[in-house]
Amino acid sequence: MVGKEMEAIQKEKKSFILSGYPRTRVQGLAMQREGVFPDAFIILNMPFQKVLQHCEDKFKTYEKNLDKAITANRNVHIENHAREYLLNVQQIKDIYPNNYFEIDCSTSSREDILEDIARLLRFKIKSKRPKRPASILLLGGKKEQRVNIAKKLAKRYGFVLAMAREQLSDQISRNTEVGRLVLDNIRRKTLVKDSIMNGLIQSRLSQVDAQMQGFVLEGFPRTEGQAVSLKDVYIQPTLIAVL
């Protein structure tokens, strides 16, 4: 239902505020798979006792329709529901690590909350930041230096770190067909074919986390063919850094 609504809104190129969704990690991932990436994810925080009170009010609304076994243990079910809600909030934050901010609504008035949200949205949405996630290629230099810088960039800015050698190592450790070909190249001291490297890198960069958070790609491309392969999948680097 939400997917159809979002599709219609995006076709009309309208802005939107979506309230009360996603409520779970599964719903958040479903939004990402549909290509819906919010500019800002606002979480209105409350202390646990207030969350508990809301859950109790909700329980009362449906109590007459509930099984007697549930109503007999109402306090247990209310507390479990409250803890499940907080767990879901944390899991949603985990999949939107660079897009959410939190507002404390436990003591603030409604007007203060709206002002806080407005101030943060002005900064978040109308700043001069790129309108798409960053795509950074890090090339040249010594391997150890390059890897060290790539890790620092990823940590500081929340980028996904994609390293060409790690993709090869992963295939070898899982003993895939590609891994066996790579291992044969290593034994023969020959270069891994561009077609293999291109496929591995394209697969990694097409994953949801890289698409949403942006990425720093270390050690790729090394050849013209590898560079063209990025262009083939519409990856236009925000920055190419050569050490």
Overall residue-averaged pLDDT value: 85
Helical content (DSSP H or I, runs of 4+)? 55-70%
First-residue to last-residue Cα separation: 49 Å
Low-confidence stretches: none
How much β-strand is present in the residues? 5-15%
Number of strands: 6
Layout of secondary structure:
Blueprint: H1 2-11, H2 25-33, E1 41-45, H3 48-62, H4 68-72, H5 74-95, E2 100-104, H6 110-125, E3 135-139, H7 143-157, E4 160-163, H8 164-173, H9 177-188, H10 194-205, H11 208-213, E5 215-218, H12 224-232, E6 239-242
Parallel strand pairs: 1-2, 3-5, 3-6, 4-5
Features:
243 residues, alpha/beta, Rossmann fold, 2 domains, four-stranded parallel β-sheet, two-stranded parallel sheet, 12 helices, 58% helix, elongated
Task: Tell me briefly what this model is.
By secondary structure, the protein is an alpha/beta fold.
Report on this structure.
By secondary structure, the protein is α/β, with parallel strands linked by helices. The chain has helices spanning 2-11, 25-33, 48-62, 68-72, 74-95, 110-125, 143-157, 164-173, 177-188, 194-205, 208-213, 224-232, and strands spanning 41-45, 100-104, 135-139, 160-163, 215-218, 239-242. The chain has a four-stranded parallel β-sheet, with helices on both faces. A two-stranded parallel sheet has the order 1-2.
